[in-house]
Design brief:
The complex is a heterodimer of chains A (116) and B (111). Chain A is mainly β. Chain A is 0% helix and 50% strand. Chain B has a five-stranded mixed β-sheet, with no helix packed on it. A four-stranded antiparallel β-sheet of chain B has the order 2-7-6-5, with no helix packed on it. Classes of the chains: A mainly beta (116), B mainly beta (111).
Chain lengths: 116, 111
């Protein structure tokens, strides 16, 4: 079945540094990818919708200059957390939309970001 | 954008059948109903998807009444490893479709 690979699975960084998270669709072309963050015991919160070749659409309250999204190809989207702070520590998850409108989403395994 | 409502949590015992119902009163004509399972520190995993009536696969069944305003995920003979959070999503994956997750249902399976 379709697979979405997300890297790294876990990252620890110092406050003020930037971290890049990659999301790849391994065996299908993903014109749309989604980025979420999830705090402990809470549901997934949509951060942005990433469309190949165009600017990402951010949800209200999500700083686009803080969370840079690049979707340069049909198989790769990246999320860069710039100047990370401890409050950015969270579980970040990507998903990719399949070819058909009613295709289920395929999710990466998430990235646990800890900012010290 | 169809909003979904599910029970916050459910408890069950190994070997029992578990039914989780999701309400989606303002589902649109083109919307599909999709259920996902999430274990701690992992991304959600697709379980089953349907449009109407009944869908069955190797892990679950999905029952959708004629008015499509609700759906029921049925897990036959659950095991401890089915302890997870289950999410019901409604929509289609066309451009601009927002995948808004509800609170989900925390299923706890006891021995």
């Amino acid at each position: 079945g379709a697979v979405v690979s997300q890297h790294p699975s876990r990252v620890i960084c110092k406050s003020g540094t930037s971290v890049k998270i990659e999301c790849r669709s391994l065996d299908f072309q993903a014109t749309t990818m989604f980025w979420y963050r999830q705090f402990p015991k809470q549901s997934l919160m949509l951060m942005a919708t990433s469309n190949e070749g165009s600017k990402a659409t951010y949800e209200q309250g999500v700083e686009k200059d803080k969370f840079l999204i690049n979707h340069a190809s049909l198989t790769l989207s990246t999320l860069t957390v710039t100047s990370a702070h401890p409050e950015d520590s969270s579980f970040y998850i990507c998903s990719a939309s399949g070819e058909r409108g009613y295709s289920p989403l395929h999710f990466g395994n998430g990235t646990r970001l800890t900012v010290t | 954008l169809a909003k979904t409502t599910q029970p916050i949590s459910m408890d069950s015992y190994e070997g029992q059948e578990v039914n989780i119902t999701c309400s989606h009163n303002n589902i649109a004509t083109n919307d599909y109903i999709t259920w996902y399972q999430q274990f701690p520190s992992q991304g959600p995993r697709f379980i089953i998807q349907g449009y109407k009536t009944k869908v069955t696969n190797e892990v679950a069944s999905l029952f959708i009444p004629a008015d499509r305003k609700s759906s029921t995920l049925s897990l036959p003979r659950v095991s401890l490893s089915d302890t997870a959070v289950y999410y019901c999503l409604v929509g289609v994956n066309t451009g601009g479709f927002k995948t808004i997750f509800g609170a989900g249902t925390r299923l706890f399976v006891k021995a």
